[in-house]
Design goal:
alpha/beta; globular; seven-stranded mixed β-sheet; FAD/NAD(P)-binding domain; D-Amino Acid Oxidase, Chain A, domain 2; 17 strands; 24% strand
Length: 384
């Protein structure tokens, strides 16, 4: 870009925002990332991510980080098992060894969120991320410029503000009136530590990658992570306030466990062990989504990526990989076009239909997994 390169801010240091920042810096474009977290290790980063060749891995190639990713990734994590409530295995996919991939076999290797974040952060200049910076509001100044006001009172002016700040984005309201709505589905998270040694039966049931058991609007979704950990989600349709309505506090681990065991009472004992024997407590994760399609009128100086642009339920579509692709595509547009505003317009023209298609697939995936025909409908509709 020219000496008149715009001053760019990315709000949010998630996978999409960091991928965008890396791709911009790699092409000599300065950028600052503002993140609410006090530091990189301020909170857990969540579970494993499945990065597809056409989304997350394509983004990492564009950012010049695919070799580093491959060194950290777990190809064996691509294994998938689909069970019914009797613990009968209805479908199993196991990837062939990397040394002899099957013709046409897609690489969907996994990586822990924390490892991916470290990989992306280590690729940036040390001063690229401003930790402990929460965007309070944006003030339009004309000509596409915006003054960003942060919660500590300081302000800065930017030519382009990229909202990569997730479900409850502070940038989105400047572009769209849409707000996330509760999907009617809740995940309750728990997990197992050192599963192969301490919980060998659970480890065998889950396998090397991910396991999902489905029946009558309920599911148990387990996924391997590094260092022997297994993360588990109990998924069900119902009120967002289910805990309050059943009279339990999420901090009361055994009371929550009892409610979940009752909700899944007709399931096989091998599956109930996932709820009965988990380590630690439970965390409530109600699922929210933006309307489909979510669109906005192009506004100079502002744009969105990732969940800020297309929040969707985590079924059938790897949202983090899609966010990373957004970030890489936006950076490619900005570095390949002499007019930044036209570059953002071209990015949005490609983003919006792609996001609408993905969000539609995610909604259908949730309906299949938690609908009346599950798991047989889910099995029938799997690509062959």
């Amino acid at each position: 870009m020219t000496p008149t390169t715009p001053r760019i801010a990315i709000i949010g240091a998630g996978p999409g925002g960091l991928t965008c920042a890396r791709a911009l810096q790699r092409n000599g474009v300065p950028v600052t990332v503002f993140e609410h977290d006090a530091s990189a290790g301020a909170r857990p980063q969540g579970g494993a991510l499945e990065l597809h060749m056409t989304t997350g891995q394509a983004a990492l190639r564009s950012a010049g980080l695919h070799e580093e990713f491959a060194a950290l990734a777990r190809p064996e994590g691509q294994e998938v098992r689909l069970l019914d409530h009797t613990a009968t295995v209805l479908f199993r996919y196991a990837p062939t060894p990397a040394s002899a991939p099957a013709p046409g076999e897609a690489d969907r290797s996994e990586i822990d969120r924390g490892e991916l974040r470290r990989l992306l952060l280590d690729s940036l200049t040390p001063d690229a991320v401003r930790w402990g910076s929460y965007l309070r509001t944006l003030h339009p100044l004309g000509d596409g410029r915006h003054r960003a006001e942060f919660d500590d009172g300081h302000t800065e002016t930017f030519d382009l503000v990229i909202g990569a700040d997730g479900s409850w984005s502070r940038v989105r309201p400047m572009l769209s009136d849409a707000t996330p709505h509760y999907t009617g589905v809740t995940f309750v998270e728990t997990g197992f530590e050192d599963a192969d040694t301490r919980h060998p039966e659970v480890a065998r049931l889950v396998g090397a990658g991910g396991m999902r058991a489905e029946s009558a609007g309920r599911a148990l979704i387990a996924r391997r992570e590094s260092r022997g950990r297994i993360r588990l989600y109990a998924a069900f349709r119902g009120s967002q306030d289910w805990a309050l309505e059943t009279g339990v506090r999420m901090t009361d681990t055994e009371a929550v466990r009892a409610v979940l065991l009752d909700r899944f009472a007709d399931w096989d004992e091998r599956l109930l062990a996932l709820l009965r024997d988990s380590d630690g407590g439970f965390a409530n994760r109600p699922l929210f989504a933006l309307p489909v399609p979510h669109t906005w009128t192009h506004t100079p100086g502002l744009t969105l990526l990732g969940d800020a642009a297309h929040l969707m339920p985590p079924f059938a579509v790897p949202g983090a990989g899609l966010a990373m692709l957004d970030g890489a595509e936006l950076a490619r547009a900005l570095t390949g076009h002499p007019d930044p505003d036209e570059a953002v317009g071209a990015y949005e023209a490609a983003l919006l239909p792609r996001a609408a298609e993905a969000a539609g697939r995610a909604a259908r995936g949730m309906a299949e997994a938690l609908g009346p025909g599950a798991p047989l409908r889910h099995l029938r509709d799997r690509p062959r």
